[in-house]
Amino acid sequence: MAKPMHDTPMLDQLESGVWPSFVSGLKRLAKDNDMMVDLLGQLETSYETKKGYWKGGTVGVIGYGGGVIPRFTELKDENNKPKFPAAAEFHTLRIMPPPGMHYDTNTIREFCDIWEKFGSGLIAFHGQSGDIMFQGCTTDNVQPAFDALNQMGFDMGGAGPAVRTGMSCVGSARCEQSCYDEARAMRTCVNANLDDMHRPALPYKLKFKASGCPNDCMNSIQRADVSMIGTWRDDMKVDQAEVQAFVAKKGRKHVIDNVITRCPTQALSLNDDDTLAVDNPNCVRCMHCINVMTKALSPGDDRGVSILVGGKRTLKIGDLMGTVIIPFHKLESDEDFEWLEELSTEILEFFAENALEHERTGEMIERIGLTNFLEGLGLEIDPNMINQPRTNPYIRTDGWDDEAAKWKERQAAQ
Amino acid sequence: MAEAPRMPDETGVPEIEPYLHPVLKKNYGNWKWHDRPRPGVLHHVAHSGDEVWTVRAGTQRQMDVYTIRKLMDIADDFAEGYVRFTIRSNIEFMVSEESKVQPLIDKLLAEGFPVGGTGNSVSMISHTQGWLHCDIPATDASGAVKALMDELHEEFIREEMPNRVRLTTSCCQINCGGQGDIAINIQHTKPPKINHDQVGNVCERPSVVARCPVAAIRPAVVNGKPTLEVDERKCICCGACFPPCPPMQINDPEHSKFAIWVGGKNSNARSKPTFHKLVAAGIPNNPPRWPEVSAIVKNILRVYKEDAKDYERIGEWAERIGWPRFFEKTGLPFTKYHIDNWRGSRANLNASAHIRF
């Protein structure tokens, strides 16, 4: 039995309604957990005053410099004592999940047992950066909780100016649209750079995310510094009998309105016999028709990845989408993944050396220009990297002949 | 001699294999097609002929161990001992026999977990934490999300929207919730209130000065103490100074408002990915159920559902009908604050004679 509950009239109003209530969960934990009793007291206070009461600090585990999010209460009485002492320390451990967030039930049950023993019993599946968030731990219990989770085979995630926990979609595990092994790609990038995850010393955060196709279910283009998006080079696959079956079932008008005319580059046409004509060189691999006709259409066989760099949200210069630095690369053989690993470390090193403090890769590239970034990494330019050529004359072009010769040489070599 | 401390096993991201459902493991990279037999259920077929059914259910994201164990009991008793979570905190149960689908759904519903979130539904809101755990929140995203999902439940369990709808919520302007078809984010409206007694001790002043997007912060001395001051004519109230310098309090119980943004899209399907755009601001931060936020979101969704063509995401719909019509149809006021004046803003102005009447 825990200490008596505080009155929580505001939070109680979040127990009604059909959606599962986190408040009911907190209250269930509070029946035999003083930390949760006082956590509810502080949270209710926030609901009343519309103020937050946590401050950060320095809490960690031996051997690592990051991954714990320290929280100390600032809600004090007139004697500077915490008003809710059992929740005066409420730290979070960020733990990296298996790729694709797959679990067997025993693993999650073991998480519950560990967190019931050392923490509050509250776990978020998952935080916005893709970690399992073990929320609510005293400073003293951070180390034993981490040791127990680490001995299960799980490692600390990233926080602060560091490589952050990666994310990869369900992909190859259960999706026919997957164009590469997303789990392996994400593990390759993160695990090659663990030192910069666990000992934060970068200018700012660096995120890797992997989506198996241009639907980008991991939202990597705007949430990752290094966004890996699956694609294919050859013709997309069309099962014409299934196309005809789809047209027969849905009707021509439906197919024309929802598939043919929705193609962003007018690369589709419905033939008189209800088969599909595809202008593959003008297909931009947007995925729409494949999403609609899942049985008839699928990505081609020559699959690989496009890599975009620089996605981020607002601070400091405004939102940035990632932009293409690798239009296509195969990701099949061990050599392909070695190439990816090397690219990930080169991007990290260039970022570490050239970004200003608190600058993300996208801001760094905006400041120095994409061509300087590509030259620094030794990557060749490609017209797939731009929406359109420059519209201003403010560029010194006295190296034109050499650059044109390089392009012709590359074209001839292909 | 004290015992040497345990050093971490720096193992990084675990292997995926031990955590995969056996049918997923066996057919890894060899799936052929899928369909959706009903809302909340996915059916995948492998080249081998193997099939797997996935039942998706909504959760409250931050869960107590009792709820989690209940979900694991359901996974063991009604599914096959494996689960996964989506990026929007939905839980997925995989089964290799179709006959297990309905009993699994029945059990989830009986235990209070809504089944849905697939296809053209309004899925669970991707959101940040808020007052429960964050050190800089102006609100409680978890509570606002709970209140809103209570009202959007019918759209979660159905697939009746023109296309998928992905919502996000964030407790400050850093917007950890990310881009969304509709994003519900805090928007501060007043410059930070500075506790000059603390700044010199707590903040690394040059890095706080460097953090400001509009160079409105400068070093100062107040009452003989080194501190920082803000040029309030330049300040855009973004709150960037608050995380590195907590004595520059940006959160204001009255003046930190909600703003609503529409048209964010991460997918490349049809149109290129887009950022969400501001459509409404000045909405009160009104716990515990934030009714003003829910009303505006539901209204936008209602108009979108009535007016958009099949497969148009909210941003694509607004682009087709034009922003004058968007404001007309939703009844939202158009103000000077909607006209971009940040860097690159001319790209958001109408440099054409394409006018709608």
List the helices and strands and how they pair.
The complex is a heterodimer of chains A (414) and B (357).
Chain A: H1 9-12, H2 22-30, H3 34-49, E1 54-55, E2 68-69, E3 72-73, E4 92-95, E5 102-104, H4 105-118, E6 122-125, E7 132-135, H5 139-151, E8 167-168, H6 182-191, H7 195-198, E9 208-211, H8 220-223, E10 226-232, E11 237-238, H9 240-250, H10 252-260, E12 268-270, E13 276-278, H11 288-292, E14 297-298, E15 303-309, E16 323-329, H12 334-354, H13 361-368, H14 370-377, H15 400-413
Parallel strand pairs in A: 8-9, 9-10
Antiparallel strand pairs in A: 1-3, 2-4, 4-7, 6-7, 10-15, 11-14, 12-13, 15-16
Helix pairs in contact in A: 2-3, 4-5, 6-12, 9-10
Chain B: H1 22-26, E1 31-38, E2 41-46, E3 51-57, E4 62-64, H2 65-77, E5 82-85, E6 91-95, H3 101-110, E7 126-127, H4 141-156, E8 167-170, E9 182-188, E10 193-194, H5 196-202, H6 205-211, E11 217-222, E12 225-230, E13 248-249, E14 256-262, E15 277-283, H7 291-307, H8 314-321, H9 323-330
Parallel strand pairs in B: 7-8, 8-9
Antiparallel strand pairs in B: 1-2, 2-3, 3-6, 5-6, 9-14, 10-13, 11-12, 14-15
What does this 3D model show about the protein?
The complex is a heterodimer of chains A (414) and B (357). Chain A contains 15 helices and 16 strands. By secondary structure, chain A is an alpha+beta fold. Chain A has three domains: 9-151, Alpha-Beta Plaits (2-Layer Sandwich), CATH 3.30.70.2500; 167-233 and 303-413, Sulfite Reductase Hemoprotein, domain 1, CATH 3.30.413.10; 237-298, Alpha-Beta Plaits (2-Layer Sandwich), CATH 3.30.70. Chain A has a five-stranded mixed beta sheet with strand order 8-9-10-15-16. A four-stranded antiparallel beta sheet of chain A has the order 2-4-7-6. In chain A, helix 6 (182-191) packs across helix 12 (334-354) and helix 9 (240-250) crosses helix 10 (252-260). The longest helix of chain A has 21 residues, at 334-354. The relative contact order of chain A is 0.08. The mean pLDDT of chain A is 97. Chain B has 357 residues and is of the alpha+beta class. Chain B folds into three domains: 17-110, Alpha-Beta Plaits (2-Layer Sandwich), CATH 3.30.70; 126-189 and 253-340, Sulfite Reductase Hemoprotein, domain 1 (2-Layer Sandwich), CATH 3.30.413; 194-248, Alpha-Beta Plaits (2-Layer Sandwich), CATH 3.30.70.20. Helix content of chain B is 25%, strand content 21%. In chain B, a hairpin with a 5-residue loop joins strand 5 (82-85) and strand 6. The longest helix of chain B has 17 residues, at 291-307. Chain B is globular, with a radius of gyration of 24 Å. Chain B starts with 21 loop residues before the first helix and ends in a 27-residue tail after the last helix. The chains are: A alpha+beta (414), B alpha+beta (357). At the A-B interface, helix 2, helix 3, strand 1, strand 5 and helix 4 of A face strand 1, strand 4, helix 2, strand 5 and strand 7 of B. Strand 5 of chain A pairs antiparallel with strand 5 (82-85) of chain B.
